[in-house]
Amino acid sequence: xxxxxxxxxxxxxxxxxxxxxxxxxxxxxxxxxxxxxxxxxxxxxxxxxxxxxxxxxxxxxxxxxxxxxxxxxxxxxxxxxxxxxxxxxxxxxxxxxxxxxxxxxxxxxxxxxxxxxxxxxxxxxxxxxxxxxxxxxxxxxxxxxxxxxxxxxxxxxxxxxxxxxxxxxxxxxxxxxxxxxxxxxxxxxxxxxxxxxxxxxxxxxxxxxxxxxxxxxx
Length: 218
Known about the structure:
With 218 residues, the protein is α+β, with helices and mostly antiparallel strands. 44% of the residues lie in helices and 16% in strands. It has a 4-stranded mixed sheet with strand order 4-5-7-6. A 3-stranded antiparallel sheet has the order 1-3-2. A two-stranded antiparallel ribbon has the order 8-9. The chain is elongated. 30% of the residues are buried. The N terminus is likely disordered.
């Protein structure tokens, strides 16, 4: 009898979980947040969330990351802070160039810069490719000015990050899509970032490529 009563007490009704989600004030949340706000065990929360997902009331984005469907489609960029809560990453490379209007083609994979090891994460809202860059080169980003709360490289840094990556992975990133630089794009600022690359061969490669883009633009 004691075991049965304990089992009954540990259960959470779906409507109660939805109340906890509403308390967060956003539609994307994690299992850890639900555990903290409810005071229930991890197994109880996971079972309840899986039950809600099976009912179509929430969406499982990735292991430990969930979302409540809203009136507009969920942007994959919105989930970035929740996918990497303990790791600093920023949107860069082709993905950032697209968001800045320099690349028209929509990338199929969202590319992120990080000081951690390179990795690929496949979720129910998109594929995220994390590329490692040197800690000394980890900069030149700010919060995105549009919808969503995520870090993104400045246009100039996004281009240099892309060239930096292409120098290391020419087979995968050697060919660039057509680039359209706005008037406010600063090749001088981009060159300053390129000169901060520690490795001499990579620095020379990036500066040479940058000069080619600058000549085409002029």
